Amino acid sequence: MSDIRWGVLGAARIARKQVIPAIRRAGAGEVVAVASASGNAERYAAEVGIPRAYAGYDELLADPGVDAVYIALPNAHHMRWILAAARAGKHVLCEKPIVLGTAELEEVTAACADAGVQLAEAFMYRHHPQLRRLRELLDAGAIGDLVTVESSFHFTLPRSEPPDIRLRRDLGGGALRDIGCYPVDLLGWLTGAEPDDLGVVAHRDTPDGADTRTAVAARYGAVTATLHCSFDAPFRAEARLIGTTGTIELPDVFRADQRGGTARIRVERDGDVSVVEVEGDQYGEQVAAFARRVADGVEDAAGTALTARTAATLERIAAAAGQTASSVL
Questions:
Q1: Which residues contact 181 (CB under 8 A, 6 or more apart)?
Q2: How far apart are CA 212 and CA 86, in angstroms?
Q3: 12, 108, 134, 317: which could join 82 in a potential S-S bond, CB 3.0 to 4.6 Å?
Q4: Average pLDDT, stretch 130-149?
Q5: What angle do CA 216, 305, 312 make, to 5 degrees?
């Protein structure tokens, strides 16, 4: 059982439904405080069973009884509060995308290193054991050499007034940053590289709005890829890897939690099909891995490098789609 004392910045649904239960389930510490600028902190704390509630994020960061924070704020607020947390000596697990560009990533990384605190991006899918099994299959030549990857993430986001924060360009919203980041991150993990070439098309509800649909064609060395995301189609979060001798389909690659933690890996080669089911708790493994980093003081070099590749690629895609944004400071 970890003795890390967690604070949560932002009374967000993902914290309530996924991350806080995962911390408790995995024995990754105790959630002792929550802060919300919307005035919901006390009600949220009472409902979730958190002992302390703060009306401001600075108040929580000043709490000496908090060791680490989970940041679940709008994307454009991530950099400001990572920097503030580092100054307060708090370790940081921040929702994806961790920041809105490479310059911001360099700044928060340097600040956390100077403060001697751990910083990690909350890409929970990275921690599901299906990725280890997938790597074993690829290394064993299960589908020969990788030729192309097709990956997509879609769900239907209702339009409303005021608009959902995921549709607010000023807050770093849009389909690319909210869910397109997953296929981008997966390609960075698979190839260990950023794309050599890419082309982008995007759709917006209004000319100056956030993207609601984005499609990317990219080349990573000899591997080609197509990536799609939208707020306008039924739920899909999948990938297909096509090799010189076979295909691997990953229908649950990003959201295995939707099937109780079970991820399916479908391998087809020479007309033969096999399906492997891999059990895992991706949110639990994520917070447990972060708790170990805090306890050991050892950086996850591979994860840090992947975060840098993903940030750089998202920045290029956003620029190509005319979807630039900056953090709120």
A1: 96, 97, 123, 310, 314
A2: 33
A3: 108
A4: 98
A5: 35
DSSP secondary-structure letter at 164? P
Answer whether 0.90 is exceeded by the pTM. yes
| Number of Cβ atoms within 10 Å of the Cβ of 216 | 26
Residue with tokens 């591997």: 223
Residues 192-207 pLDDT 10s: 999 999 999 999 999 9
Are 151 and 179 in contact by the 8 Å Cβ rule? The answer is no
**Dist. CA 31–CA 51, nearest whole Å:** 8
Return d(Cα 107, Cα 95) in angstroms, integer: 17
Q: Give the percent of the chain with pLDDT over 70.
A: 98
Q: Which residue type occupies 286?
A: Q
Burial of 196 (0-12, 13-18, 19+ CB in 10 A): exposed
CA-based R_g, the chain, Å: 20
Q: Return the structure tokens found at 296.
A: 């050991």
What does the pLDDT average to over 122-148? 98
Note the pLDDT of residue 222: 98
Beta strand segments in 108-160, E: 119-122, 146-156
Please identify every residue annotated as catalytic.
96
Domains and CATH numbers, the chain: 5-125 (3.40.50.720), 127-284+315-320 (3.30.360.10)
Q: Among residues 159, 158, 209, 231, which one has the least CA distance to residue 323?
A: 209
